Amino acid sequence: MMRALGYPRLISMENFHTPNFMLVSEVLLWLVKRYEPQTDIPPDVETEQDRVFFIKAVAQFMATKAHIKLNTKKLYQADGYAVKELLKVTSVLYGAMNTKGVERADVSEDDSSKFKFDLGSKIADLKAARQLASEITSKGASLYDLLGKEVELREARTESIARPLEINEAEKMMKVAIDCVLEQVQKTKDMLNNVALDEANLEAKIEKRKLELERSQKRLQTLQSVRPAFMDEYEKIEEQLQKQYSSYLEKFRNLTYMEQLVDDYRKTEQEMFEETANMLRLMQNRLKEEEQHLLKSGNKDDSDIEIQEDEGSDSEVEDRQIMKQRTTTETLLQGILTFPYICVSLRRSG
């Protein structure tokens, strides 16, 4: 539809997958200019207030001139929902173009995809037709209401026509009507006088407010130019606070780092204790097994050897060997038990 109406660029739904307010504002402004070229709507859409004002102006123009109700929230979203609102205006212009039977202009081979239609001269006729249609509907509704009252009014009309006309009563009625009109005129004059007085009072109030505004602005300028007495002290305290805060951050970082180191050291120390305990258990088990093995082998040797005269000397030698093995195992166990404590003390001293 936009291409048929003569829009200079191509538009697709992909342009509105993400909010694109600049394109929506451009299309709205083009449609408004297409509908009425002499319309003066500000095209500024840089700030949020300008965008809201632009959307409101376009919606008000379409509601008053074209009787098209637009959803301002959907237009402000500038996404796929805004396309539905744009189609309301585009379909009206496209339908008017089709009903009028505007012939397509001859285009060259390079511009074969572009169409140009002149609707500027027909906009006034379209407005007049819409206005007449609205007036016809309103007049028809009022006529229907009046015709519904015709049954009651017919009897009153026949009675008034049948009744003879009295000049005195007519004069009285005319005087009463004239008095009512004069009272209304007097009231209108009084209201005009009151309006003049109100206008003068309002002007006086406006002048008073202007003077107060000028005084306030001057006072504000003097206050901004004068430096407070406590400002120097405030700046010094602020610098000290900044230094204290930086030192606090540094100490806090160091503290957290040291706590982390302590935790790591405790974990490693616990792991070392567990490893040494495991090693001690293994060594104890091995030593017990060796001792039992030696005892068993000693008993077997005693049973196999024949009774001889030097039996006492051999048994003493074996007892000494067993005592030596026990003393060596005990010293080895004591060294293993004291080894982790020595390592811990060396690390702490280091």
Estimate percent helicity: over 70%
Number of helices: 10
Main sheet specs: none
**Structural Rg:** 55 Å
Give the N-terminus to C-terminus distance in angstroms.
87 Å
Q: Which structural class matches the secondary elements?
A: mainly alpha
Low-confidence stretches: 102-117, 306-311
Order of helices and strands: HHHHHHHHHH
What is the number of strand segments?
0
| Mean pLDDT over the residues | 79
What percentage of the residues does DSSP assign to strands (E)? under 5%
What coarse outline follows from CA principal-axis ratios? elongated
Family: Belongs to the CLUAP1 family.
Protein name: Clusterin associated protein 1
Biased composition (Basic and acidic residues): 292-302
Organism: Bubo bubo (Eurasian eagle-owl)
Characterize the structure shown:
The chain starts with a helix and ends with a helix. The longest helix is centred in the C-terminal third of the chain and has 74 residues, at 231-304. It contains 10 helices and no strands. The protein is elongated. The chain has 350 residues and is mainly α. Helices cover 79% and strands 0% of the residues. Helix 2 runs parallel beside helix 5 and helix 9 packs antiparallel against helix 10 (311-349). It is found in: Cell projection, Cilium. Residues 292-302 have a biased composition (Basic and acidic residues). Residues 303-317 have a biased composition (Acidic residues). Keywords: Cell projection, Cilium, Cilium biogenesis/degradation, Coiled coil.
